[in-house]
Amino acid sequence: ETVLTQSPGTLSLSPGERATLSCRASQSVSSTYLAWYQQKPGQAPRLLIYGASSRATGIPDRFSGGGSGTDFTLTISRLEPEDFAVYYCQQFGSSLVTFGQGTKLEIK
Amino acid sequence: EVQVVESGGGLVQPGGSLRLSCAASEFTVSSNYMSWVRQAPGKGLEWVSVIYSGGSTYYADSVKGRFTISRDNSKNTLYLQMNSLRAEDTAVYFCARVVRGGYYYMDVWGKGTTVTVS
Q1: What are phi and psi of B81, to 5 degrees?
Q2: B115 vs B40: CA distance, rounded Å
Q3: pLDDT of A55-97, one tens digit each?
């Protein structure tokens, strides 16, 4: 099973700042099988990024994804108030899916 | 509108059973991969199971042998039969549509249904 480790656990930033979230895999992951989700309290997860770098429909261009192999990143170029939430990475391999433990992005 | 709506959650005693349902609108369950994902109180997301369009099924080790994923094509509905429930199965259970075809991601999510084992 591929373990995804996200860092930091909590990120405290102010609106307008740049956020960089990390997702590290215990073994190589195909970029096409790496996705990112945003979840706000009491809500379902929302797809942000698929294929490591492709934005989902309706996702603002301040969100971008990158990386390959075992290291992936989600970047939010200029934080808006609505961006403060928990972010999860997800991978697929050998017919199984795993999620990272999440990064909480909070207002500083 | 493309959506899924879960139901069937509730309070059940340890060792008991429960069946969750996920009704889909504006797309065909049997033509897609469909998955269940859960979230224990205050915890992160945990993948539970998937059923492929061809009928193959896969499970997380934590539920293998106790949970069964299935679908009813006539009702356009996905199910999760949960047996031998444990306290650690307490969670919100989300149903999600999986997009394949060179990628693997979940693009449509329900609001979830809460299962409490106590």
Answers
A1: -85, 120
A2: 9
A3: 999 999 999 999 999 999 999 999 999 999 999 999 998 889 9
Strand residues in chain B grouped as ranges (E): 3-7, 10-12, 18-25, 33-39, 45-51, 57-59, 67-72, 77-82, 91-99, 105-109, 113-117
Q: Which chain B residues contact residue A37 at CB under 8 A?
A: 45, 106
Tokens representing A85 are: 């939430």
The answer to whether residues B24 and B3 touch, using CB atoms and an 8 Å cutoff, is yes
Amino acid type, B76 = N
Closest CA to B93 of B106, B111, B78, B68: B111
pLDDT tens readout for residues B38-85: 999 999 999 999 999 999 999 999 999 999 999 999 999 999 999 999
Q: Residues A47, A99: contact at Cβ < 8 Å? A: no
Is the model's pLDDT at B108 over the cut of 90? yes
> By the CB < 8 Å criterion, does A94 face chain B?
no
Cβ contact (<8 Å) for B103 and A96?
A: no
Summarize pLDDT for A37-50 with one digit per residue, the tens: 999 999 999 999 99
Q: Is the peptide bond before B41 cis (omega within 30 degrees of 0)?
A: no
